[in-house]
Write a sequence for this structure.
């Protein structure tokens, strides 16, 4: 009898603790937490060669925040996006979406995962089936997730959202086929579709690089506005630094599967601390001939992720590299204690 | 002195029951030794212009009219034999996808020497090898590259090789058609600065076709802005990009996010979409998206207006030398 009582008491205590922990988590606004994420591939005919696309990525994302990820081709930024929404499984590390492990979410219910994490792809012309009307594409998403009781209410939801993003007249767009729309319009539909489920975060992988310059701004503005409205976090992946700075709150610079520098967008762009970030930003020109760029030269080309140098991965191209850089790995460190993280031991000396 | 004089050139793509006027009565002078950047969005005709001039388009599906005088000789009416002499040895082109240019089953040396032999049939093997080694050295590639296959080279090295290839016969005009677009910014700038050095050595005239205005602003003296197959404005970059006369130039510049000091510079997007070139239209093609359009813009085709010898624009209602910051 006594033992039973004790046990139930202990259970109550445990339940209370869990509840408390959950409450703390709820009040904290972190929506995505990524810890030492790794994604390694093996080549088909060379089984012993490891391609290290992601090699220990850590970051957190708060509700409604926009994180820009920049880097050159082959740095792993697209792989990161695909792993984040569960299109590919990580080799190691942990992804917590709303404090739930992504693998648990996937096993439990894939639909549930899609309601939390969505993606916008680069090429809007490949995203849609040309034989299905825009209206049907959008309502089918709602139907699949049991939003709206009748087809009539679902249609109304879609019409309202079309109107909201300025695709007018909305009845007209509802009836049109994807091949009748321009790239900018299609990309807006693509963003609209991923936002219909009001996800916790979306991954936008180069969403404007296929579009003409003259329509990029409206797509970016729309993405930003919708994300703000629904308090959705955005992971904005791009090689275009000026555009990323325009939309992102924080920026992470990637090089060979690692984050080299991370901080607020302004900090990273105006006062970069890592030699690689400095080189990258100095090489981005303006359309204004009065501000000629002064590009910093960097030796060689980025090594392939199959053959990452030992120590700091930038050490073989870095003008400041010492023997220690070539042998010892540096971690992301907050030198100024202001949240600006840099993976370079000389970050303070060379500024 | 102008080295290439384009006079009233039109290029049309022919469909079954329609015709797309991809380049529409364009006149443009390219001076010897200058560097011209041709910018425009997709479908503006910037690539078609050079393809049309070099007659690289299929003659059954396209039609080129007008004149393109290279040192006084018209390339459009020239016979094939003469044209073959001009291509590559006088005017050469570098295309965007370097990876697709090379043969995957031949070494770089085999591939390059085959081309060399076509233009210099009597060349000896040693002469060819020396020439190729010099060429690669010009773009900072080691001679080991000659023995390699395309898949062994990185994208930047392949693009360097294709630039070397285009310089094989020391051409007078080098056309770069989005040649560095697929590369990373750091590699792109390295290659472009190398080209700048080569240019001085060989007294090249360079035509750079791109959609990236920042590349033109940093690496070209002059700029030509294209829209819907027509030339909108041409002049020195310091004039055209800073005090544009044509509203389209202004809007295009304002569509680019820049690194302004405070990072708050707003980016605009141009409302509407480009007109359908399959259909005939009157007036200015930009009239449906332009904030300064008048009735005349919809009916009459704007003719050339000159600011000075080098700077001209095609607009009925030009901006009066306002900055790019002039609000829309």
């Amino acid at each position: 009898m006594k033992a039973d009582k004790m046990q139930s008491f202990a259970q109550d205590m445990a339940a209370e603790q869990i509840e408390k922990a959950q409450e703390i988590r709820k009040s904290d606004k972190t929506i995505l937490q990524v810890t030492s994420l790794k994604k390694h591939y093996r080549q088909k005919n060379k089984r012993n060669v490891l391609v290290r696309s992601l090699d220990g990525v850590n970051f957190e994302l708060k509700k409604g925040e926009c994180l820009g990820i920049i880097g050159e081709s082959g740095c792993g930024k697209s792989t990161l996006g695909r792993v984040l929404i569960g299109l590919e499984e990580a080799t190691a590390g942990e992804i917590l979406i709303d404090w739930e492990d992504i693998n648990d979410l996937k096993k439990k219910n894939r639909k549930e995962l899609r309601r939390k994490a969505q993606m916008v792809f680069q090429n809007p012309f490949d995203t849609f089936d040309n034989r299905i009307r825009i209206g049907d594409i959008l309502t089918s998403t709602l139907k699949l997730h049991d939003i709206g009781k009748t087809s009539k209410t679902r249609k109304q939801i879609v019409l309202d959202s079309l109107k909201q993003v300025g695709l007018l007249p909305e009845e007209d767009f509802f009836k049109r086929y994807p091949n009748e729309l321009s790239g900018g319009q299609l990309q807006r539909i693509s963003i609209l579709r991923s936002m219909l489920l009001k996800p916790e975060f979306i991954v936008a992988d180069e969403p404007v690089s296929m579009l003409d310059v003259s329509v990029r701004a409206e797509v970016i503005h729309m993405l930003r506005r919708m994300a703000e409205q629904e308090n959705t976090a955005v992971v904005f992946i791009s090689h275009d630094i000026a555009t990323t700075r325009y939309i992102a709150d924080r920026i992470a610079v990637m090089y060979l599967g690692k984050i080299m520098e991370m901080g607020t967008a302004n900090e990273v762009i105006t006062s970069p601390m890592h030699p690689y970030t400095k080189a990258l930003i100095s090489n981005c020109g303006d359309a204004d001939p009065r501000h000629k760029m002064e590009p910093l030269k960097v030796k060689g080309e980025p090594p392939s992720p199959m053959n990452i140098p030992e120590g700091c991965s930038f050490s073989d191209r870095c003008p400041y590299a010492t023997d220690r850089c070539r042998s010892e790995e540096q971690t992301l460190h907050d030198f100024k204690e202001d949240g600006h993280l840099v993976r370079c031991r000389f970050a303070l000396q060379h500024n | 002195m102008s080295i290439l004089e384009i006079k009233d050139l039109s290029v049309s793509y022919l469909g079954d029951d329609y015709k797309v006027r991809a380049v529409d009565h364009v006149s443009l002078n390219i001076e010897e030794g200058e560097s011209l950047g041709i910018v425009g969005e997709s479908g503006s005709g910037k690539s078609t212009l050079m393809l049309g001039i070099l007659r690289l388009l299929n003659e059954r599906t396209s039609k080129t009219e007008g004149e393109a005088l290279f040192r006084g000789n018209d390339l459009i009416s020239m016979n094939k034999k003469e044209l073959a002499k001009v291509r590559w040895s006088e005017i050469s082109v570098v295309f965007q996808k370097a990876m697709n240019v090379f043969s995957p089953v031949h070494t770089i040396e085999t591939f390059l020497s085959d081309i060399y032999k076509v233009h210099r049939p009597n060349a000896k093997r040693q002469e060819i090898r020396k020439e190729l080694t010099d060429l690669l050295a010009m773009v900072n590639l080691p001679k080991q590259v000659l023995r390699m296959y395309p898949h062994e080279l990185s994208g930047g090295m392949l693009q360097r090789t294709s630039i070397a290839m285009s310089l094989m016969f020391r051409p007078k005009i080098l056309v770069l058609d989005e040649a560095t677009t697929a590369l990373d910014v750091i590699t792109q700038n390295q290659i472009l600065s190398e080209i700048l050095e080569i240019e001085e050595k060989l007294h090249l005239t360079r035509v750079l076709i791109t959609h990236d205005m920042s590349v033109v602003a940093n690496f070209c003296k002059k700029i030509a802005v294209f829209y819907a197959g027509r030339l909108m404005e041409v002049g020195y970059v310091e004039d055209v990009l800073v005090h544009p006369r044509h509203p389209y130039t202004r809007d295009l510049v304002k569509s680019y996010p820049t690194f302004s000091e405070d990072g708050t510079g707003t980016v605009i997007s141009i409302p509407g979409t480009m007109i359908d070139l399959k259909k005939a239209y009157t007036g200015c093609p930009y009239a449906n998206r332009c904030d300064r359009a008048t009735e005349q813009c919809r009916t009459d085709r704007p003719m050339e207006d000159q600011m000075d010898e080098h700077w001209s624009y095609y607009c009925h209602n030009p901006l009066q030398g306002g900055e790019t910051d002039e609000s829309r």
Chain B touches chain A at residues 41-42, 154, 156-157, 184-190, 193, 211, 213-215, 217-218, 237-238, 241-242, 251-253, 255-259, 263, 267-270, 273, 324 (CB under 8 Å). The first helix of chain B runs from residue 46 to 53.
